[in-house]
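PROTEIN DESIGN WORKSHEET
SECTION A - STRUCTURE
LENGTH: 358
TOKENS:
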């Protein structure tokens, strides 16, 4: 495969959102009312209706995207997942109470079972659901009859994510242990200057270690998703750098904390820009990059407007916020003019409808 990456110029290979806030609001407000009246049972239909509208109003080369599913499939998957979540949560709560019983054997067994559910059962179920959702939506969203396809098995997807999740959770627990121990020593007035220096170093070291594992988990998930997908006979490849993602996460999270959340706009922009720059499309052994042209100043302006539309109107103008965001962002994602989409053909399994959730 050639190593040349062909970058973009202004061309017809750009997205456009043709919807408007008025139509979107009519659909969304009706769905919201039904969701409230049915005590959440209408949630799958609400999600499907919103997604269908967005896809049908999003065009690429003057062709809209299509969705091929129905609310009954979403309904079954949604409530199976919800009930599964309640079972896992109930198990954790119940085992947590058992861990405080006076019986030593029961206490030890409860702690072991609690950790097993937290570190093994919960992440396996979570990433299994995530994989099935990924399979389902890629098989049921199409453009000109062509679907995305997933090229990996559930087992291959889950294993590295559960491993990295375990490392991240262990580092979090160790960091929280040091914080709790520090508070205990402070309350007991055992603090000395050497102790403060030592614990300061330990707490910051494990905080950075936690960020490293968080970054590793995020990078693993992103790379697995994009490296295991095709669009018809086009191959998608992730070429991102783990160190660059770490820099974005460390700086973005720090900025968000010190600015009391205001820095989140910059953090989201950096992650979006990194993600799109790190994905290439392969056709005829050539790699074509994706260009994201939205400047940071326009992103900040957009987020300020979104804040006003979403919160100062108590959510009534949320559809205007979504429409505006889709319109601006879609126009600034551009694919290479050298990509020949007339040569893209569906794969044999593109039209097979996958199972949602379980």
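SECTION B - SEQUENCE
RESIDUE ASSIGNMENT:
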């Amino acid at each position: 495969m050639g190593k040349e990456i062909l970058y973009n110029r202004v061309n017809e290979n750009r997205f456009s959102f043709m919807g408007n806030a008025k139509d979107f609001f009519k659909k969304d407000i009706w769905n919201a009312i039904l969701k409230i009246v049915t005590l959440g049972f209408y949630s799958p239909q609400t999600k499907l209706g919103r997604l269908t509208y967005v896809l049908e109003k999003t065009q690429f080369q003057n062709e809209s995207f299509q969705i091929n599913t129905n609310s009954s499939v979403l309904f079954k998957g949604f409530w199976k997942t919800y009930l599964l979540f309640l079972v896992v949560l109930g198990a954790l709560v119940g085992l947590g109470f058992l861990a405080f019983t006076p019986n030593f054997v029961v206490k030890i067994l409860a702690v072991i079972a609690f950790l097993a559910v937290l570190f093994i059962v919960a992440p396996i179920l979570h990433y299994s659901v995530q994989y099935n959702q990924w399979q389902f939506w890629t098989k049921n969203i199409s453009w000109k009859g062509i679907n995305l396809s997933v090229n990996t098995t559930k087992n291959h997807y889950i294993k590295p994510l559960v491993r990295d999740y375990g490392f991240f959770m262990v580092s979090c627990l160790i960091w929280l242990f040091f914080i709790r121990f520090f508070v205990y020593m402070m309350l007991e007035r055992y603090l000395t200057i050497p102790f403060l220096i030592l614990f300061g170093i330990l707490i910051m070291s494990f905080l950075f270690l936690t960020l490293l594992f968080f970054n590793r988990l995020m990078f693993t998930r992103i790379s697995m998703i994009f490296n295991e997908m095709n669009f018809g006979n086009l191959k998608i490849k992730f070429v991102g750098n783990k160190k660059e993602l770490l820099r974005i996460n460390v700086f973005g999270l720090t900025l968000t904390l010190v600015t009391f959340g205001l820095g989140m706009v910059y953090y989201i922009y950096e992650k979006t820009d990194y993600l799109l720059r790190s994905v290439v499309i392969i056709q005829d052994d050539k790699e074509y990059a994706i260009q994201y042209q939205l400047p940071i100043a326009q992103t900040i302006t957009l987020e300020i407007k979104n804040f006003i539309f979403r919160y100062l109107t108590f959510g009534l103008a949320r559809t205007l916020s979504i429409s505006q965001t889709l319109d601006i962002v879609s126009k600034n994602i551009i694919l290479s003019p050298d990509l020949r989409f007339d040569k893209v053909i569906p794969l044999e399994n593109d039209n097979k409808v996958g199972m949602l959730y379980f």
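SECTION C - NOTES
The first helix runs from residue 21 to 37.
Residues 1-10, 350-358 have pLDDT under 50 and may be disordered.
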